[in-house]
Amino acid sequence: MANGGHMMKPFVVKEIDNPDGSVYQKTEPQEVGQPVTKETSQAISKIMAEEISSGGGQNAQIDGYQFCGKTGTAQRLNKEGTGYAEGQYIGSFVGFGPLEDPQYVVLIVVDNPNGVYYGAQVAAPVFKEIMTEIVRIKGI
After folding, report:
1. What is the dihedral of CA 133, 116, 113, 91, to 10 degrees?
2. Principal place where this protein is found (predicted)?
3. pTM score, two decimals?
């Protein structure tokens, strides 16, 4: 959603530098499709911004900025893979922004948290901390 609906091939390392600072190898972004239109992407992004500003993701809200996000809560599978494990959960939050010019995407996954387990309570605040630092460091 953050890039207009384009699906990109994921990569971990952007570039490898030589000891002298010159670039030895650089990975270029590679589009592999566009599963949703730009218009659909923009509409969903606005809904995700509302999730933070007035929905379940309010713990991710950073004053003065409009970010997009979605909370998640799921039960963990049991060891046999035949059902759910009693009392075991995964809380998550994925967000990106700023809405007007998305530059950063952050996914927080909290596996089997103690006590409260909803993504809105355990993962959204971590997103807020990380994104607040990104905003500060990058001067957004």
Report:
1. -70
2. membrane
3. 0.86
